[in-house]
Amino acid sequence: MATTVKIPIKDQNLVSSLQDFFKTMLRDGDITGLMVAQHLPMKSSVMPTLVTDPDKLDAVDPLAPVFPMNAAKVVSKLTRKPLGGKVAVVLRPCEIRAFIELVKLKQGRVDDVVLIGIDCLGAYSNVHYPAFVGEDGMEATARFYRNIQEGKGTACDGFDLSPACKACEYPIAENADVLIGVVGMDIKDHLLAKANTSRGEDLLDNLGLSSTGEPEQRKKEIEKLVAERIAYRDQMFAETSEATADLEKLVNYLSNCVNCYNCRVACPVCYCRECVFLTDVFDHEPSQYLRWAKRKGILKMPTDTVFFHLTRMAHMSTACIGCGQCSNACPNNIPVMEIFRTVAHQTQKAFDYEAGRSLDDEPPLSIFREDEFQEVVAKMH
Amino acid sequence: MSDFEPTIIAFVCNWCTYTAADLAGTSRLTQPPNVRMIRMMCTGMVDPKYVIKALLEGADAVLISGCHPGDCHYINGNLKARRRVKLLKEILPRFGFDERRIKLTWIGASEGIDFANTMKELVNEVKELGPSKVRKQMVI
User: Fold this and answer.
1) Which domains are present in chain B?
2) N or C: where does chain B have the smaller number of CB atoms within 10 Å of the terminal CB?
């Protein structure tokens, strides 16, 4: 039986109550450190911080509707070798799912971390959040949740969630060691903390919180939220498939790409230390460009744009967890997430795989069996 | 379309299909000259990007050919190749590439006749498909 406890909300203040919870966790829990998103002194930014002193948690705000990067990348940095202590990491569901992919790709280990997943109602883009946040980051988070509580949804002050978040069917981090429940809870009274694993139970046991159950209302609201997200997602898939249905349309779709490869840098699962597109394989001889130009009479510069995106789809779409950081990082507003998720949905289905679901599912391109996919082998002669 | 001569890029395994090609040659079997062979140590090292690049450059078809399952010199490279071909056949047709332009076959070292026949059949098939549109199209 999973341990489920109450995180009390004091003075109807969601943000400060969660801060108190994390302070207690770092002080009394069996952990050396806590990695959690905090507002930095520069008011508009919220970044992961690794904290060992409970007094340095005053700007913690994992509910802020923004994540400038997918923090799975930094958890990977923390865990590629023994860490020398146990650290609880507070992540969004998509960050946990990306980390699970990275662990399977041997880019991190779960041994030294306790994964704490918070229900995610979505985030604004890196461009919209600073405009939304104003002077007081924590007040802005409260404003965001007040808006939702009042039934006005996630659009607030003229800003709305990024398309990736609107299309995300995984708002609940079911695969975390500890799940913090927000959806369907009375956020003026208490939130949930549920241990899904023994590691999670060990962490919650020492915090002196009263146990509770998961309210029926929460299940209903989660179902409703997921249904909305899937409806948005499926429409996005249909529109994106239509917009890229042939090579000419794909060229059109990607025509603003300047080969900056920010999407690859921002992608949490694109893990190669050195991407082949940055190596001298792509430092073509000057005369080569002229030969290419002569072949069709015209060559778009820089070259290899469609080649890059198709290759990234082949290399990484089976691990795509749909966080949308590729679109977040694109300087030219190319809907990268849309096309990647659309392709990823198909490739993952083809291999009966769901990226980020579980450490037990083997990544499609790292396993193979003798009797499979006979249909792709041509029967000739 | 009868005067259309397709360009086919073939990534072949050193130990099986390339050896079969060699055998077909020394056996003086006639084969169409449309296939440009690239010898790999194993089909397991054919990265999807090689296939993508060839098709984007206007190749009319790409063939990957290796050892029969169970015969791989490196135990399971051909099985990896098969998964990658599966992957490419999921991705590329979405963007208008004809799935029939991506071929995977197994041809063992002793199968010189099979090699020659496969090349003939492949070239005929691609002739019927006609030239790849990408030949003339600007790809960014």
Assistant:
1) 8-135 (3.40.50)
2) N
